Amino acid sequence: MAQSHSNVGVRYVTLDVFTRARFKGNPLAIVEMPLEGGLDQQTKQHIAREFNFSETVFLHPQSSNASHRRCDIFTTTEELPFAGHPTIGTLVYLGTSSNSAGERKTQTFTLQTKAGLIDARISDDTAEASIPHNVRIHRTRVPWQSIRSAQPSLKSVEDGDSTSCPVVSIVKGMTFVLVKVPSVEDLAALTVGGPGVDSVEWDAGWESFTAPYFYVIVSEDEEARHIGVRVRLIEPTCGEDAATGSAASALSAYLALQRGTGSSAYSCSIEQGIEMGRHSEIQVKVTLDDSGEGVRNVVLAGSAILVSEGTLYL
């Protein structure tokens, strides 16, 4: 018996995010949800698996407010409340889609995610997004032996407590083990395809997607409060990620909290994906609250470029 196929199609685009060059940065698929009926969770998950990118965005139809859009973010295995490169890629797509051919202007958008509203400014191919945040440094750190089991090439870890690494959430549901390694050479020697980091204990009620984020501070200007960082994110379910805005935000918040005083602001320039040939550039600015012990604002910024577009048949 011949199998029947649906002729219902939805528009999709792909972009490379945190780069201005095609085939660099982190790939992202954006699927425009149909006007009627939408897509159920299972269909979204199937589509995300079909694209097989680290994340796929499902963009809800435009409402009466053209500058406010709602989106859902999926990995190949689950929905996420927030992720950085889908946020920046979606905002750049919305900005370029609303501009007339050849037109250049700065626009403001609000993107609604499961983690909250994101107010953003888009100029040409670059978006700056004031991202939702609920920064939490968990009480229990990950023992160094768990890091060493996942990455045997690492001989030591560079941190205030050299026997363990901090666990930091940028929002509930997005958590990272921050592993400061001694050098860029140690960063390059990390391997993909091994086991994940275990022994992660979240604070009560904060159970979460968690991945290790390996980093090296390559420059620091104390007077300008600017930090340059090289990073890698390696995790069994996704392999290596070319650019991880949520992890970059968590790391930047952690570094600011370790250094800052009340109401101070720190900026971080983060490079990722170099070892896998997909160089990405992520900018984060963190402003601390009056006490210097909490985070008032996190702004994530980066560029994106359109790679492909077409019709996805359901």
Describe this entry's structure for a reader.
With 314 residues, the protein is an alpha+beta fold. Helices cover 17% and strands 41% of the residues. The strands form 2 sheets. Strands 1-2-3-4-6-7-8-19 form an 8-stranded mixed β-barrel. A two-stranded antiparallel sheet has the order 10-11. Strand 3 (56-59) and strand 4 (68-74) form a beta hairpin.
Helix count from the secondary structure assignment: 5
Strand coverage percent = 35-45%
Shape field: globular
Q: Separation of termini?
A: 20 Å
Helix content, binned percent: 10-25%
Radius of gyration: 20 Å
Q: What's the SSE pattern?
A: EEHEEEHEEEEEHEEEHEEEHEEE
Give me some keywords for this one.
two-stranded antiparallel ribbon, alpha+beta, about 325 residues, about 15% helix, eight-stranded mixed beta barrel
Give a topology summary.
Blueprint: E1 9-17, E2 26-32, H1 41-51, E3 56-59, E4 68-74, E5 79-80, H2 84-98, E6 106-113, E7 116-123, E8 126-130, E9 136-137, E10 142-143, H3 144-150, E11 164-165, E12 167-171, E13 174-180, H4 184-188, E14 209-221, E15 226-235, E16 239-241, H5 245-259, E17 265-272, E18 280-288, E19 295-313
Give a quick precis of the structure.
The protein has 314 residues and is α+β, with helices and mostly antiparallel strands.
